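Example record used in the benchmark description.
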Amino acid sequence: MPDVRPVLPTEPAAEAATSPAPPSAGTAAAADPARAAVRGGVLGNYVDQFDIFLPVLALAPVAAELYGTRAVVTYAGLVFVATLVGRPLGAALLGSLADRVGRAAVARASMLGLGVTTLLIAALPVAAMSHEVVLLAVVALRFVSGVLIGGGYTSAVPLAIEWSAPRRRGFVSGLVMAMSPAANATIATLVLVLLGALGSDGYAAWGWRVPFVVGAVLAFVAVVHFRRHVRDTPERAAAAPAARPLTSVLVGAERHRLWRLLVLMTGLWLFTNMAVAVVTSQLDVVAGLDGRAVTLTMLVATAVSAVAMVASGHASTPVGRRRFLVAFGAGAAVLAPATYLAAFGAPASGPALVALVTVLQVVTVSAYGPIGAHLAERFPPAVRSSGYGTAYSLSIVLPALYPFWLPPLQQAWGDVAPVAAVLALGGVLVAVGAAASPGEAMARD
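Model output (C-alpha cells):
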C-alpha cells in the first residue's frame, strides 16, 4: 500500500500524506485528500446511522398514533427490521458497483437517494391514511432506505480506512463507528427538545417529522462534501477492478474470509438489536417509563457508548484487532446478560436504571469500535467494498428478524430471560468469530 497517510484534526500539517498529485489541485481534496476521506467516512456513517435509528427513537413516542394500538411494539420492530433487511441487498449490489467504478461515486449516489427517501417519510400525509397504510408506506420507504444505506457505508468506510496510516486505522475506525451512538444521542436530544417545546400532542401532530427533515438535510450535506472533496486512493484508482467482486466474495477465492467474519458480525448485530432496539421498547413496556424518560435514558447511554467506541477502536491497534475482539466477546458473554438482568429482572428505576442501561451499551455495542478497520483489512482492494459490505450486512438478517423469533421465546420464558440469553449468545459469537477471522489482506505499512 502506498505511504498515503491521513492528517487528522489534531495532527500538524507537516505529517500530511504523500501521494501522487491529484488531478484537480484547486480543490480541498487535492490539498489534503486523506483528511477529506476520513471526514467523509465520519460524516457518511453519521448520516447512515442517523437514518437507521430514526424510526426507533423519533417515532417511539407516536407509534400508537401512527400504527394503531394493536401490537404496536411488533409494528415498530417491523419498521426497524425493514431497514436492516434492505441493507444486505444494498451492500451486495452497490458494494460490488463501488469496487468496479469507485467508492466515492457510489457514496455520493447512495447518500443522495437516502436523503430523498427520508424526506418522503417526513412528507407522508398520515392524517389521510389508515394505520395499516401508514405502516405499509413507512416499511416500504425504510426498506429502500436500507438498500441505499448499504451502498453508503460499503463505500465511505473502506475509503476512510484506505486513506489511513496503519497506526491510525484503529482510531479512525473507532471515530467512524462511534457515529452510530452519536447519531442516536443526536436524535434523542432532538426528540427531547421537540417534546418539551411542543408537548405530546404537538409532537404527534407534526413534530415527529422534524427529525426526518434533519436526516434528509444531513444526507444532502454529505453528498456535497463527497462531490467537492473526496476521491478514491491512488492505489484504488490504479488497480484493475475484479470482474465479479461479489461472486469472488460469496463463492470464489475470498469466500473463506466472508463466512468466518459472518459469525463475528452476527454476534454484534445480536448486541445491537437486544441492547438498542429491544431495550428501548422494554424501558416503556417492562420498566414503565414514559416517552420522555425513555429518550433521556437512551441519550445518556448512547453518548457514553460513543466515547467507549472510539476508545475500543484505538485500543485495538496495540492489542491487535482479533485479540481485542476475542477478549471483548468473552467478557460480554458474562457482563451483558448480568447487566441486563440487573436492569430489567426486577426493574430498576431512576439513576440506577440509567446507569445499568449505559453499562449495557458499553459492554455490547462499543465492540464496533475496531470493526471498520477489521473488516476493511481482511479484503484486498479489488473486492474490499463487496467484502466489507457483505460481511457487515448479510449478518444482519437473522438478528434483524427478532420480532418473529423473540416473541415466542418470551411467551414461553417471560419478557426478560430470553433477551439475557441472546446477549450471552452474542458475546460467544463475537469471541468465536474473532478467533476464526482470516489474516489481513491490507498492508500494514
